[in-house]
Amino acid sequence: MMNLKGNPELSQNNLMRPLLNYGIACMSMGFLIEETAPVVWRGLMVMSAIEKLLRQVDWGPLDYLVVDTPPGTGDVQLSISQNIPISGAVIVSTPQDIALVDAHKGAEMFRKVHVPVLGLIQNMSVFQCPKCKHRTHIFGADGARRLAQTLDLDILGDIPLHLNIRETSDTGQPIVFSQPESDEAKAYLRIAAEVVRRLPPPLK
Questions:
Q1: What are 182-193's pLDDT values in tens digits?
Q2: Sequential DSSP letters for 47-115
Q3: For residues 84 and 54, what is the distance between their CA atoms, to the nearest angstrom?
Q4: Across the chain, what does the average pLDDT equal?
Q5: Using CA atoms, how far apart are residues 55 and 164, in angstroms rounded to an integer?
Q6: Fewer beta carbons within 10 Å, N or C terminal of the chain?
Q7: Contact in structure between 70 and 31 (CB atoms under 8 Å)
Q8: How far apart are CA 124 and CA 157, in angstroms?
């Protein structure tokens, strides 16, 4: 999605240098293993991998460190919350009931480990036919909004189900860079602004 692949180089301090594109430094387990190899780690192996990605990477000065985790409440989330101070968590979910169950558990887990939940993002919220412009809620309407009310959280924004998002993501050209004036890009930018607004200012 960021048009990055390959093995990270090592710095003079023997730290991995993150791969860079669009002005964003990225590190992933996908850079460290074969492209088709599955990551089937649990427990101590997960904690070791997270420690490597957090503390053995030459991140340099950062405005924000964003950690994208799998859905749910497993070892990854717990290990991160126990290893580094987290300014806030953002829960992303489609509006369908089955996805909202995991989203609800995720929000409650972060609250239990005293990580502020900044809000929810409703992904794939609506599909608009490119020909007739009819809007269809394929995954249901406003499920994440109802969950936000239940949890007393804010909705940070909605991301539509749109072909442009899928195509630009698959080609490694994020829509906020390749089509910055599109409605879809503006949806992402509004959400980013909402997240930043809820965070403490970065340390200088």
A1: 999 999 999 999
A2: HHHHHHHHHSB---S-S-------SSSSHHHHHHHHHS--S-EEEEE-SSHHHHHHHHHHHHHHHHTT-
A3: 9
A4: 89
A5: 36
A6: C
A7: no
A8: 11
